[in-house]
Design brief:
By secondary structure, the chain is an alpha/beta fold. It has 6 helices and 7 strands. It starts with 15 loop residues before the first strand and ends in a 6-residue tail after the last helix.
Length: 200
Amino acid sequence: MFIIPVFPTVDITPKIIVGLGNPGKTYENTRHNAGFMVADRLAAHWGCVFKADKQRKCELAAGPGVLLVKPDTFMNESGLCVGPMMRFFKLDPRSVFVIHDEVDFPLGVIKLREKGSAGGHNGLKSLIAHMGTQEFPRLRFGIGLPRGKGEMTGHVLGKFRPEERELLDVMVAKAADAVLYTMQHGLTKAGNIFNAVQDV
C-alpha cells in the first residue's frame, strides 16, 4: 500500500508526458483515445517516433528533455506502466504530465489541472493507485457526454462523428500547444491562458 504524499504548490517541468488511451487499431481515433491523439501530435511536432517497449508496457518516444508515453495496457490498467516508470527514473510525480479525455467537457474545451481525484475516469484511477498520489498535473480534453442515458461505454469507445472532425483537429493542436507552453512557462501561467472561457 502506497503512502500518499502531500506536496506544496509549485510548477515542475514535465519529465514524462503520458497520453491515455487504448492500444490497437480497434480503438484508433475513438473518444477515449484523445490522450493518444495529443501525444501523437507532440511526437510529430518534435519529429520523434513512438517505438514499442514491451518491458515497460508502453510505446515511447523521446522528445527534447522529456519522454512521451502511450501505455500499452488498456485504459483501466494505465498505472501498471506509469507507476513503475516513475519510480525507475526516481521522478517526482508532479513531473508526470497526463493527457486524458473528459466527458464532463464538450468537444472544444480543454483544461489544465494541477492535481485532483479520478472523477470516475478509469485511467486516472489506475494511475493514482500505482503512483500512490493524485498530485500529478493533467490536461483534460473535452469529448462531451453521450446523447442518451446508459450509453457511456459506447460513447467513449466510439469514434468522433464526421461533423466533429474539424473541431477535433483544432483542439488536438490546441492541446499540444498547451503542453508545450506548460513545458516552457509552467502550469500556472499555462492555465491562466488555456483555461480561459472557450468557445464551443
